[in-house]
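Running this now, will post back.
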Amino acid sequence: MQRWARGPNLTATVVWIDPTYVVATSYDITVDTETEVTQYKPPLSRPLRPGPWTVRLLQFWEPLGETRFLVLPLTFNHKLPLRKDDASWLHAGPPHNEYMEQSFQGLSSILNLPAPQLAEEAAQQHAQLTGPALEAWTDGELSSFWSVAGLCAIGPSACPSLEPCRLTSWSSLSPDPKSELGPVKADGRLR
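Update: finished.
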């Protein structure tokens, strides 16, 4: 989903790049002066290769913006720890690196993508991981994207520095005034 500021009509190119620098897809979005939000979910072939993905937004092949997101590997399948034979195909990406019927690899040089050999070797090694090694890789990937912003305690805690979750503004256990509706008041208001 993309959110746009008001401005002149434009056509932007969106490019999705997997962790091994495979150009998974590329498509154009036309944005007119009245458009505020656009969305398109490309029908990528599964399984997606785990790791950091990049989405680039271009106009006339010049960068407008870029974002990264993480596709996590599966650590469990059917409520059981992932087995090696499952991991090898679930984490390898789609057959022949074909996320779409059409190949977009010709864009690699235009996008100045790095040589894929090292990333491909790492992806092949990661596709074989199971158990504690898979969990360690998953944890490492997570920590490269997110860090803990806060902790809270559900109940009484031996750690006095932990604030009760009900007193934080961010916890799902804190009060939510928007969901606490009472009877309608005489002036027609809920609060």
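The mean pLDDT is 91. More later if anyone needs it.
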